[in-house]
Design brief:
homodimer, about 350 residues, alpha/beta, Quinone Oxidoreductase, Chain A, domain 1, Rossmann fold, 7-stranded mixed β-sheet, 9 helices, about 25% strand
Chain lengths: ~350, ~350
């Protein structure tokens, strides 16, 4: 007989207009579902919070369907199998799943990936060894293609994507310039992660500092923020530079279309400098995932890739933590310790 | 002893501010230069007029140096060797060169390519079998990569680049949609060149017509004009679409930066649809030129690629013809018959 678990879940109560506020969310309780034959019951241990979730809150066609109003917020999770009626999963297995902002979920096993808790802390499956790390790896290597001696710039450099981008650039022999918010994050990026320079985007002379840190221009700009950082990066882009675009957190709250119109200058420079701009989502490169898991685990072991996690305790704090993420308050890969 | 040829040349008298006017140019006469040992004297037969020349008139760093004020305007030419002190060239040889807007020039042979006048009309070395044809070939095949069943859109479709883009797209099994100015050009694009549709960008419902002609969206937009056409194309771009950017004739007279700012929406769609935008200049792909010459000559022979030339008689008409080119007055590849 199923246990009387109470599932706590955070639903999208209403779509935000512009900036996300706590009113967009609602915590609800309901009996946890009971696994049918061929299913497992999962207890969520960690919930990943990521910028892409902001896009899912809008009622707009993008690369994925929006979260329906009233539905559980979407998200990657690390779970423990606590009941199994599935031949391939046993009670106690730790799995990566996409169970969303809740404490329990059932699964028929599709899309679950077992995690070895001995190999690395299980939360890393949401960060450096998970979607953010893979975003960095696939986008940088496939589209950015940094070469030895080139200059790679990435924003949100203390975050899980940015930190991996810069460190992988280093492994490939390129210079890594990180942009981050505030002196503490910049110190971490430069001293702990070993970037060649870290620039604080809050600095009044941010653009000048960035230019000084890139005396030979920028060959790869890994775009994950958009907004004002772009304006500082744009004039520094070199001939034949590459701009993989994986995120635009600065404009997720809505498009600011006040002029001047920056499109004509962009196109002019794209032409004159033969710049490549290319959007991507990590699952476009899903066939590279086995290679990623192998290489990244090795790099972590060798100390070539370091990472930092920002773990917040308790599902009920997910809305507040997520809102903080959108304004850069997290420091490292943000995840919720659910149980 | 050198012959007493008089060289007529058109110089850049002053840099245009915005729209080009005849005052930017001046016709001058001077004795033709005398070839030294190892040089040839060339008499210009055809001068190519191309949109890129507008960029050279500005004092702005681009992929090439600007033409100096007082210097002869730059341009590709088909010439006849009329004196030779070079072992590899004989009097009477027809060569492709970059001799500019003038009637005579000397050359040390570097960059000259002999043309076989029996193979095709020599003027085609400036058009379908020259730089414009190669721009279409290299940009479309290397960056656009049209696949069977996909939709390829190109503007200035009756011009030398656009007409080749659409016809090569057809050869690769893609649908070809051309944009051109006026009913006469559109009829030519559809009926003579065999595009699947031709849309008149002067039509008040241009954007709606384009959308109807592209019921499955746009997979490749070969950007050679910029301006208003882009706004009609942009919402139709498909997931994983490719946008090779080889020209922006609509904005060569200066950047209009009046809002709204279209950059945030561009970046949003680049991300959501994983669009690739990539500028190029045909000489980036110069190693493909032998393959181009072979394939294009074969396609012309087989009737798979047709072309149209717009030949204007007399060097003194070059400024007027060039100004017309910038506003789309030419109909086919524009060249000046110099002698």
């Amino acid at each position: 007989m199923a246990t009387p678990h109470i599932n706590r879940k955070i639903i999208l109560k209403q779509r935000p207009q512009g900036r996300v506020t706590p009113e967009a969310f609602e915590l609800k309780e309901a009996p946890a579902p009971t696994p049918a034959d061929g299913q497992v019951l999962l207890q969520v241990r960690y919930l990943s919070l990521d910028p892409y979730m902001r896009g899912r809150m809008n009622d707009a066609k993008s690369y994925s369907e929006p979260v329906a109003v009233g539905a559980v917020m979407e998200g990657g999770t690390v779970c423990e199998v606590i009941e199994s009626r599935h031949p391939k999963f046993a009670v106690g297995d730790i799995v990566l799943s996409h169970s969303g902002w809740q404490t329990y979920a059932v699964s028929d096993g599709k899309g679950l990936r077992k995690i070895d808790p001995q190999a690395a802390p299980i939360s890393t499956a949401l960060g450096v060894l998970g979607m953010p790390g893979f975003t960095a790896y696939s986008g940088l290597l496939t589209l950015g293609q940094p070469k030895a001696g080139e200059t790679v710039v990435v924003a949100a450099a203390s975050g899980p994507v940015g930190s991996a981008v810069g460190q992988i650039a280093h492994i490939k022999g390129a210079r890594a310039i990180g942009i981050a918010g505030g002196p503490e994050k910049c110190a971490f990026v430069k001293n702990e992660l070993g970037f060649d320079a870290a620039i604080d985007h809050h600095a009044p002379d941010f653009a000048e500092q960035l230019a000084r840190a890139c005396p030979d221009g920028i060959d790869v700009y890994f775009e994950n923020v958009g907004g004002a950082v772009w304006d500082a990066v744009f004039p520094l882009l070199n001939t034949f530079s590459r701009v993989p675009v994986c995120g635009l957190i600065a404009q997720y709250d809505g498009l600011k279309t006040d002029g001047p119109d920056r499109l004509p200058a962009l196109m002019q420079q794209v032409l004159a400098k033969r710049i490549m701009l290319r959007g991507f989502i990590q699952f476009d490169f899903i066939d590279q995932q086995p290679a990623f898991l192998k290489e990244m685990a090795q790099w972590i072991k060798e100390g070539k890739v370091k990472y930092r996690e920002d773990i917040v305790d308790g599902l009920d704090r997910a809305p507040e933590a997520f809102i903080g993420l959108l304004s850069g308050k997290n420091f490292g890969k943000l995840a919720i310790k659910v149980t």
